[in-house]
Amino acid sequence: MQFLIIIALLIAVIAVVFALQNTAVVTITFLAWTVDGSLALVVLLAVLTGVLISVFVSLPSIVKNRIAASNRKKKINELTNQVNKLEEKLEAKQQELDLYQAPPELPLEPVLEEPLPPEKTTQTPSITEE
Questions:
Q1: Which of 7, 22, 60, 71 gives a 20 to 30 Å CA spacing to 33?
Q2: What is the mean pLDDT of residues 112-123?
């Protein structure tokens, strides 16, 4: 941006110097009209007219490019959001997978189980042969 300002100021200085050095009066004739004016004024008006025509001719292209750039930025933002959501899903699935692949956690202290109560046995008379 600063570069463009410097270029514009340089062109303005050149135009002023040109206007100061070319003060001769010239006659411009176009169809039925005749105009007398300074040579510098005539040349500067011709240059200004050329610049304006160039701007108007290139304006549709500039607008089209800005609209396309805006659409691309929107698409980039949408895709970035989609990538972020997918990365979050991937991280959640990775954590879930790690949970299933991890070995079962063993208790740090041994657990003592209470002994089972003795079983009640009923003695059946045994038949012995005598």
A1: 22
A2: 68
